[in-house]
UniProtKB/TrEMBL annotation:
Keywords: Cell projection, Coiled coil. Residues 209-247, 340-395 form a coiled coil. It comes from Terrapene triunguis. Residues 36-54 have a biased composition (Basic and acidic residues). PANTHER family: COILED-COIL DOMAIN-CONTAINING PROTEIN 113-RELATED, COILED-COIL DOMAIN-CONTAINING PROTEIN 96. GO terms for biological process: cilium assembly. This is CCDC113/CCDC96 coiled-coil domain-containing protein.
Length: 487
């Protein structure tokens, strides 16, 4: 950046001995001849020479920022340089006799001893924003900054760096256009003096060149001073950021501890309530853990949705508002248009994000409504099932009573059966063949056979007796016969 400023400072003055055409080239001069006459009329009588270069814009930007914050309007560059220009500035080159009508006058050059550093206005222009000591927040903005953390600071630093880079690029382009227009005007001045046969005022040009060199040196010193101030401010803000990060960590730890205690208390109460309804501690623990896990997921989703919106609102309220007036007063018309387009794009982006968040909220509300309806139906069904269970428990008790009675009857019946079985066995033992038809038939047959055999035996006995008698009679007759026979 400093090398580009040195090159620009070395190219800006045009010495009397060299032609402006050779210094600037034929291309930009030919293109700027028509545009140079229209610029004063479009700017409302102000010459583009009055627009500050890159270093002057940076210096005026640094001085205008605290003055706008303090609520006062910054003085114009012409108003600041007018008293000192009248005292010690070099005499201006004659323009009314050398330029055509309608051209604006060249602004008076700034003095060498003029203080452009914002050091004085930096401290005096911030009565409404006092510097805070470590560990002593005073308003709600500091409490919001404590909650934002290091990510917001990094995002803010990147955004600020991008804005400064864009401003620097625009100011470089503006400085290039102003330098080309200056060369064009000097070329016209040179042509005018050449036509009149006069030489350009060498003394005035040398004084202008020396004044620009002094201004360039002063701007470099002021740039170093601003860089040192920026380093100090970064160190101070880093201390503030570290303190805020520590506080944010403590707050987050406290919030997590309170959340865990709250969840434990809810779990205890819910277990005590649902333990009797679900009929067991293990089932109640599983149900409560499922509900708490679902609640934790919903809480994380809500935190993810809520934190970006909160950061955006805090960022807009704490950063954009203090710099709004300063940006409107200091930026050029083209930068205003760019900012407006950027704001429109950001607004459209935020509107899209808001629509997405609204859609997500609508979905969540629909889910909540469906969940409530399902929960109501489940409660009704649970009550109905509990009533059915109560009825079935009553029926079960009645059935168990009846079963107990039947068991008693069955026991008594078995005892009677056993006694009857023993008695029957005894009776069977006593009755013999009674009750056995086959044995009775067989016994009857045996008896009949025995009677038949007895009768036959009697007959045989009788026959035997008859035969015996007959035999005896025969023997007797034989004996008698033998007795009659001679020996």
């Amino acid at each position: 950046m400093m090398e580009e400023e040195e090159e620009a400072g070395a190219e800006a003055p045009v010495h009397p001995g060299e032609s402006p055409v050779e210094a600037e080239g034929p291309g930009p001069v030919a293109e700027e001849q028509a545009a140079g006459e229209e610029r004063p009329e479009e700017a409302g009588g102000e010459s583009p020479l009055e627009k500050p270069s890159g270093e002057e814009a940076a210096a005026e930007e640094g001085t205008a920022e605290p003055e706008h914050r303090a609520g006062t309007e910054p003085p114009s560059p012409a108003a600041e340089g007018r008293p000192e220009a009248e005292a010690g500035a070099a005499p201006e080159a004659p323009t009314s006799a050398s330029f055509t009508e309608g051209e604006a006058e060249e602004p008076p050059p700034l003095q060498v001893g003029e203080v452009l550093s914002p050091q004085e206005s930096w401290g005096a222009g911030r009565p409404s924003l006092p510097l805070l000591e470590l560990g002593s927040p005073t308003d709600e903005e500091e409490e919001e900054e404590e909650e934002e953390g290091g990510e917001e600071a990094a995002a803010e630093e990147q955004r600020r760096r991008a804005e400064l880079t864009e401003q620097y690029r625009l100011l470089l382009a503006e400085r290039e256009r102003t330098r080309q227009y200056n060369g064009h005007l000097q070329f016209k001045l040179y042509e005018l003096f050449r036509k009149k046969g006069e030489e350009p005022p060498r003394v005035e040009l040398e004084e202008l060149v020396s004044d620009k060199e002094q201004r360039y040196t002063r701007y470099l010193a002021m740039l170093e001073e601003l860089r040192s101030q920026l380093a100090q401010q970064r160190a101070w803000y880093q201390l503030q950021l570290d303190d805020l990060e520590q506080r944010c960590t403590k707050k987050l730890d406290q919030v997590n501890a309170d959340w865990l205690a709250f969840q434990a208390c809810k779990k205890e109460v819910t277990l005590f309530t649902m333990g009797r309804q679900l009929g067991g501690k293990e089932a109640a623990i599983k149900e409560v853990e499922h509900i708490q896990a679902k609640e934790q997921r919903k809480e994380n989703e809500m935190s993810e949705v809520r934190l970006p919106l909160t950061w955006d609102l805090c960022f807009q309220s704490s950063v954009h508002e203090p710099y709004g007036m300063w940006a409107q007063e200091e930026l050029a018309e083209g930068l205003h248009l760019i900012d407006f387009e950027q704001l429109k794009i950001e607004n459209q982006t935020y509107n899209e994000k808001i629509e997405e968040r609204n859609e997500e909220l609508l979905k969540l509300r629909n889910k909540i409504t469906n969940t409530v309806q399902i929960l109501t139906q489940l409660k009704e069904k649970l009550q109905f099932v509990e009533a059915q269970n109560q009825d079935q428990r009553t029926q079960l008790m009645e059935t168990e009573t009846l079963v107990a009675q039947k068991r008693e009857i069955l026991t008594k019946t078995k005892q009677a059966r056993d006694s009857l079985r023993v008695h029957n066995l005894k009776l069977r033992q006593k009755c013999g063949l009674l009750g056995s038809e086959a044995l009775l038939r067989d016994f009857e047959n045996k008896v009949d056979a025995a009677e038949v055999l007895s009768q036959r035996l009697e007959m045989l006995k009788r026959h035997h007796a008859g035969l015996t008698l007959t035999c005896k009679a025969v023997k007797k007759k034989i004996k008698e016969a033998k007795s009659f026979l001679p020996e």
